[in-house]
Design brief:
Length: 362
């Protein structure tokens, strides 16, 4: 296991009076061991103890050739994996439990009396994973670099008569060509009224002259996610749509300016939201300003009005204000990923935010 990351978790466990913990999230296990194991419905559990009695409980269906830096405890499909795990737990002490661990495993562990009380251990891991080390920061930069290329390649296709679903498929094709393992979420490729609905499900609609087009896309490169949104227009842009676009770009700029150590996550949200409200479109900014990102597109720690956590160097999160006018068929969102530095932030996306009107195909 990565001893630096492990020691940060163990130190936090001591601070929280949590002498032992079960981690079930495959991404966190990958973050610690460098090995991605997707167990499906089977139990996979990393048991950590402040005294060093660490074990990884794993089904025999997942043989491991490399040394993961932790003792492996095997079980098979006709054995009770939770009962085997319970033999190693200190039953007279509190135990932290991963928030994604299925209830069928947790309830069985409780039935076995494996712990004096059960605590949410994920907050410890979430806050530690939130701060990216230098290697992770480089991986985030590279993933975002490819995302910039992807959106540049995608934009010309918005005027080629593709449906939203076909544009979605083209997005996936571009990320594959760029060497990404996959998209980091289902691409949002929406025209006009679809763009004006933040919860729009990609359909068979096609774009037409004057339509705004939201392109919210991201990919996984070396397991790290990217996420970026640009809004472009087909053929022409109305004065009304340009007004909305300019407001959102300025809100994005103000949010990025507020993204620095010592400020709170809610300060970034307020920087965007207050400006949009000042311009008369507060009710039309219907979602939070952003989310943390790393091994997942949406990680713990959002950029919202209620998150008062202090921003720290090493955090990566999105700044993505938007204005949505469904009755006018106008939706504009601009999103960048920021990496918090010692004195401000580094914007990981470099693709232009100048207004783009894509020429119609002859």
């Amino acid at each position: 296991m990565d001893t630096g990351k492990l020691n940060r978790i163990l130190e936090a466990m001591k601070e929280k009076d949590m002498p032992q913990m079960i981690i079930a999230d495959p991404l966190t296990i990958f973050w610690l061991t460098g090995k991605m194991i997707i167990p499906g419905e089977r139990l996979l559990a990393l048991y950590l103890n402040e005294n060093g009695n660490h074990k990884l409980f794993i089904n025999e269906l997942f043989p491991q050739e490399q040394d993961l830096g932790v003792e492996l405890v095997w079980y098979n499909d006709v054995q009770d994996g939770v009962e085997i795990l319970s033999r190693y737990v200190e039953k007279d002490k509190p135990i932290g439990i991963d928030k994604i661990w299925p209830a069928r495993f947790l309830l069985r562990l409780q039935e076995l009396g494996a712990g004096s009380k059960f605590l949410n251990g994920s907050m410890i891991v979430d806050y530690i994973r939130m701060i990216k080390d230098e290697k992770e920061q480089e991986l985030m930069r590279e993933s975002s670099r490819l995302n910039d290329i992807a959106v540049e390649r995608l934009i010309p296709w918005v005027s080629k008569g593709l449906t939203e679903k076909e544009l979605n498929a083209k997005t996936r094709e571009i990320f594959q060509e760029l060497g990404c393992e996959d998209v980091s979420f289902d691409p949002i490729t929406a025209y006009a009224k679809g763009a004006a609905d933040p919860h729009h499900v990609t359909d068979d609609s096609k774009g037409k002259r004057g339509d705004c087009v939201i392109l919210d896309i991201g990919g996984f490169k070396d397991n790290y996610a990217s996420d970026l949104t640009r809004t472009v227009f087909i053929g022409e842009v109305s004065d009304r749509a340009k007004e909305i676009y300019d407001i959102v770009v300025e809100a994005n700029r103000r949010g990025i300016e507020a993204a620095k150590p010592g400020n709170r996550m809610c300060d970034v949200d307020a920087a965007c939201r207050d400006y949009i409200t000042e311009k008369g479109f507060g009710p039309n900014f219907t979602h939070r300003t952003g989310h943390s990102i790393g091994l997942e597109d949406h990680e713990f720690g959002d950029v919202s009005s209620v998150n008062e956590d202090i921003i720290r160097p090493g955090q990566c999160f999105s700044v993505e204000p938007g204005i949505y006018l469904p009755e006018e068929g106008i939706g504009v969102r601009i999103e960048d990923i920021v990496l918090i530095t010692e004195d401000g932030c580094e914007v990981l996306n470099h693709f232009t935010k100048d207004l783009i009107v894509v020429p119609e195909e002859a």
